[in-house]
Amino acid sequence: QVQLQESGGDLVQPGGSLRLSCAASGFTQDYFAIGWFRQLPGKEREGVICISSSGDMTYYADSVKGRFTISRDSAKNTVYLQMNSLKPEDTALYYCATELDLYCSGSMNYRGKGTLVTVSP
């Protein structure tokens, strides 16, 4: 059974950093593209960043370029989202997702429940 569980969300001040974790189970995340998305209540979900099976990064949101990076730990079967220089507009529910495909896409339907990031003074 494919499962994804996010953690690491918190309240942080503008300019601060957070690292979110996405623990995979039921499959080996190394073999597939994993994406991070974010969503606010009543709004469309927004793609943030993705890592392909070969390790290539794709940024879905221009607003996070230079601030967010994605990485994976094979031993822990976990994907990370490192977020630096956080801004209030980064506030959202963040979740990871996969389509069990090799390449990144905007359609990733296996997803976790998410972890809340709040950026506020």
Q: What does the radius of gyration come to?
A: 13 Å
Quaternary organisation: single chain
Percent range of helical residues: under 10%
Work out the helix count: 0
Strand content: over 45%
Low-confidence stretches: none
Mean pLDDT: 95
How many beta-strand runs? 11
- Distance separating the two termini: 40 Å
Give the overall shape, derived from the CA principal axes: globular
Major beta sheet, specifics?
7 strands, mixed
Derived from helix and strand composition plus strand pairing, the structural class reads mainly beta
Order of helices and strands: EEEEEEEEEEE
Describe this protein's structure:
By secondary structure, the chain is mostly beta strands. Helices cover 0% and strands 46% of the residues. The chain is built from no helices and eleven strands. Strands 2, 4, 5, 6, 9, 10 and 11 form a seven-stranded mixed β-sheet that branches. It starts with a strand and ends with a strand. 31% of the residues are buried.
